[in-house]
Amino acid sequence: MNGKEISKAVIRRLPRYYRYLGDLINQGVERISSGDLSEQMQVTASQIRQDLNNFGGFGQQGYGYNVKNLYEEIGKILGLDREHTMIIIGAGNLGQALANYNFAKNGFKTVAMFDNNPKFKGSVIRGIPVYMIEDLPEYLKSHRIDVATLTLPKDYAAEMATILVENGIKGIWNFAHTDLDLHLPEDVVVENVHLSESLMQLSYNLEQKQED
Amino acid sequence: MNGKEISKAVIRRLPRYYRYLGDLINQGVERISSGDLSEQMQVTASQIRQDLNNFGGFGQQGYGYNVKNLYEEIGKILGLDREHTMIIIGAGNLGQALANYNFAKNGFKTVAMFDNNPKFKGSVIRGIPVYMIEDLPEYLKSHRIDVATLTLPKDYAAEMATILVENGIKGIWNFAHTDLDLHLPEDVVVENVHLSESLMQLSYNLEQKQED
Question: pTM score, two decimals?
Answer without folding.
Answer: 0.91
